[in-house]
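Hello again,

I reread your note about wanting to compare the complex against the isolated chains. To keep things tidy I'm splitting this into two emails, and this first one only covers the full assembly. Below are the input lines as submitted, including protein chains and any nucleic acid or small-molecule components. They are followed by the predicted structure of everything together. The single-chain runs will come separately.
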Amino acid sequence: MSKRLVVIGGDAAGGSAASQAKKRQRDLDVVMFERGRATSYSACGIPYWISGAVDDEASLVARTPDEHRAAGIDVRMRTEVVGIDLERQVVHWRDLDGGAAGTEPYDDLVYATGSVPMRPPVPGIDAAGVHGVQVLDDGAALRAELSRDSVRRVVVVGGGYIGLEIAEACRMRGLDVTVVDRSATPVGTFDPDVGAQIAEAVRKEGIDVVLSDGVAAIEVGRDGRARAVVTASGRELPADLVVLGLGVRPDVRLAQEAGIPLGTSGGVAVDARMRTRAEGVWAAGDCVESRHRLSGQRVVVALGTHANKQGRVAGINIGGGYATFPGVIGTAITRVCNLEAARTGLSSVEAEAAGYSFVKVGVDSTTKAGYFPGAEPIHVSMIAERRSGRLLGAQIVGREAAAKRVDALAICIWNEMSVDEILSLDLSYAPPFSPVWDPVLIAARKAFEAVEADVRQL
Amino acid sequence: MSKRLVVIGGDAAGGSAASQAKKRQRDLDVVMFERGRATSYSACGIPYWISGAVDDEASLVARTPDEHRAAGIDVRMRTEVVGIDLERQVVHWRDLDGGAAGTEPYDDLVYATGSVPMRPPVPGIDAAGVHGVQVLDDGAALRAELSRDSVRRVVVVGGGYIGLEIAEACRMRGLDVTVVDRSATPVGTFDPDVGAQIAEAVRKEGIDVVLSDGVAAIEVGRDGRARAVVTASGRELPADLVVLGLGVRPDVRLAQEAGIPLGTSGGVAVDARMRTRAEGVWAAGDCVESRHRLSGQRVVVALGTHANKQGRVAGINIGGGYATFPGVIGTAITRVCNLEAARTGLSSVEAEAAGYSFVKVGVDSTTKAGYFPGAEPIHVSMIAERRSGRLLGAQIVGREAAAKRVDALAICIWNEMSVDEILSLDLSYAPPFSPVWDPVLIAARKAFEAVEADVRQL
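Full-complex prediction:
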């Protein structure tokens, strides 16, 4: 009898795991449960669907249920797994539309439930007109809201990547938009100097940014709909629509109930092959924790690119192959209001928390040769370990063609290169692409000088 | 008495060496000889000055003679060094305008003479109306020619980077342009498939491209000006102006005459600190040979980015510091007629010549998420060593935002990463910047599969 793989969750991680396992082992029975309406879609694309830059929902979907079925995967849409029985090796499921329920046995199980949006425990949070932005259905709900003429004022709670992307999308639709964030600068994963530049760019687009102020309550009208956001400092921000962009946490409820161990970070604990500590159970995507290669800590990073890679690794291993996921180094990128920003490695705060002592430098340059038409400003900051000069982190902020340079620095960090080694790298140069010293090399040179100066003082 | 540094050549390498040495050792006497009209300028910017994209000559100059002088460097413009006496440690110079001559003693000497353009030894090559494109004066001469109404038809001999960039510049000025190249595809440093795409893009801009055909002669009119290029196959290409874009060779004449040893490649031989084999003589820039980190061979690569780095290294060492130039891996980038192309590591031909056995793959993807507005095509090819899967070379061709990704792969090659390691890298992802699997990761994944398939067959 052929073996059976059950996959919980049909988005990036689950879909990749199912596909890879089936591809490697043709006689494997693969059943994939998805409680939503879509499989393998780009959640990161939702803001652009909302703004109208992307026209239809279908283009966000990389692989439809029918495409998965054509590859031999038994996809059960709108079907939620409500329990896992590790002892009997079965999952309990429920059809969300028809109401039917049943169990499905497994030999291998992939836990790919993703994440759940953070919801602050404040009065009014469950009112109509308060939306998260996480799954495709959230996007559809938001689009429906935004097409109503009565929606003119939007308050976005949380100034992280997604919050700002949604704020920009709403602004592009001509609405009045306010972003509220507890921190002094938005996108807390960046150092404050980068965050300040982002705040400035967002404000220039006519978006109101309220910083250092949290959400205390959501005021609800007689119709049961949210009508204002009240901040901790007492400001009242009128809102026809409230969007929660406070980030996500791993969806581990089912795992906890079943007894699949979590890690120190709160995500499902997995080894390098994406095996959980429960026999026959694998996990991948936003719900798992990963090893941070610089801090040595376990971290939860909800990003489609990790989900895809982790799903692939789980699938290959389940299909009889061998693959590992080697961890993360905190690379991220965003474009908000024509400003590009990216980071890799540790931020200053993270580096300190990890016990590193370091020097920090920043340089201003241009994306092309200074004299070349279309050269745009780019700022590169780096932190390098004292004495060794090892690159620990880098952040880039600038205009078009600035931020994707972070990949080069991510690979330097991955290989534990020192800024001294980096400044000698054979990187590409031609006037339409960079100054003769690429901005990342100028930064490395300056960081090297700072490391040397520091050594002389030691 | 303070020591004296003499620098021959005031462009990228010489200028950097002089600046760094003076900066490190304030009491050093530094004399820099430059036979042209400018110091520290961007020769790579000349095509854009010719096209008109860059307005004035001054913007191509990174550091003027007066700026060098303000930093304490004794700059002798329009002054050619005509001989080096290693025994007596002096150079002989000649003022090109006034005719004065003299000698200058040195304790350290930097040989940074750059390169000379290749000139095919064919009849008519020295006629009026035949120009090289190498130094700023060449650019000025070409601009003067192009502003004459009688110049309508331009033939560019050589389809390398510079040849094509000049061809495009002339086309942008509304001229009839033909490029002639001996090879079957232009830009011979690229694999033929990339070269073919470049040829297509160039032709689409209305530039005639004649391939697999060399130059046999230049026909000269009664006025002494070139009037046509005659190819080896007998074609006659009418020309009011002929531009030579056949590449350059290191300018080693003075070195040879003085007895400064050359290396196997024909460039001046230097060690890691940029010391030649002659006592007290250093060299940097287009005139030296570098170690290719993959082939192990010595190669001459004429690129401003290497010249700057090598000059810096020589200057630091002369100034009492310690620095090395660790070699090159063949990274290059160009934009021609809206097509971007880049390479790093070894091409297929180079890898074979170096004795490597490898698999080659190519993938087509997009520069942003496929659904994102402005996503452009990108093609990434990779060659990976058999068994080890070590990345040996990569080439990228595509539209906007495609080619600069080569830096990421250059750093992978620099660190001797295998395609297996590469596909797991934590690279940046957001829909405005890449698909969820960045094109370079997709290529690495495919290369890994090819390596695995090859191993199974071994």
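For quick reference: Chain A touches chain B through 67 residues (CB under 8 Å).

B.
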